[in-house]
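Re: beginner question about structure tokens

> Can someone show what the tokenized structure looks like for a real chain? I only ever see the sequence side.

Sure, here's an example I had lying around. Input first:
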Amino acid sequence: MILEMKVPSPGESITEVEIAEWLVQEGDYVEKDQAIAEVDSDKATLELPAEASGTISLKAEVGDAVDVGAVVCLIDTSAAKPEGDAAPKATVATPEVVATPKVETPANTTYATGSASPAAKKILSEKGIEATAIAGTGKDGRITKEDAVKAVPAMGEQTNVEGRGVSRSKLSMLRRKVAERLVAVKNETAMLTTFNEVDMSPIFELRKQYKETFKEKHGVGLGFMSFFTLAVVRALKLFPSVNSMIDGKEMISYDFCDISIAVSGPKGLMVPVIRNAEDLSFRGVESEVKRLAILARDGQITVDEMTGGTFTITNGGVFGSMLSTPIINPPQSAILGMHNIVERPVAINGEVVIRPIMYVALSYDHRIIDGRESVGFLVAVKEALENPQEFLMDADVKKALEL
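And the corresponding structure tokens:
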């Protein structure tokens, strides 16, 4: 029996995927539920498991865009499983085909061919384009002013590469979609960024005192992300417009906090969502961050786990970033950027002291979030991080950490 394997729907609104990699070869024997391919959607990379055991015949190539529901391979379920190692496949001799070289008829050329008129030469010079890079449409191939006006500098092309390596690879569907969304954000939102700095000393002290006990009891580390997530949840409750988004002529506000956490995965940036973060404790946030980070790292994250966040936190500090202006994750209206922690001299009570300082940045859509809300939100995050016992733990550290 021949089983047609079709592309399953990775999630709502996804109609097409791209074959990122075949994990098997033509004619291989595959077991049921064995991963046979990786497919890219515009939101995630997913594995395609075999629906039955048998010999496989591939019907799509790497890089092909295929519709959801389309047949990508056939599995012959009547084929017997080979004993031991798979039997070597028969080699079919293919007769060599010698192509007859095409004889090009040289075009008539004159002294004018490839030459630019004075006006065209000036325009090309301003654009930084060599006359040899374009074909003239004038008499005998002369480059006219109109040719120069229409000429566009080559993007991503490099000249004088002889003897040096150059590679070209196709962007994955996920990367293309990310690029498209980022450009759309810049073009379609009134994005601004406000900055502040946070003295991380209180969090350092708490982690130094309780991190070992916390890890022994809960099996996860007491990291910075739980402090930031809970500080963001508190600030979103104080400034609900930051937890909103635009839908046409309407503003949608949420009474829950689904916090997207940007993490780096093997296929690029992933943004899994911590659902109902307002209901989670420090242990709950750390456990969820760990779970989602492992799924993203192993390429097992699902589309549903990366969809529907209301606010995003991104941490460029893990890569050494001192300061940045993060781009909003659409359709959300704001994103908080964390950065590296550096010991800096600061003035406290008239004295200069050294403290671990982190710069934080809030990018927001000024169409629905005003300066008062954006600055107030970031100040609320700052005060919670600088006094976590009062604002995040109700003055009871052990109870908040469930110790």
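Each token stands for a local structural state, so reading them left to right follows the chain. Residues 191-400 form a domain with the Chloramphenicol Acetyltransferase fold (CATH 3.30.559.10).
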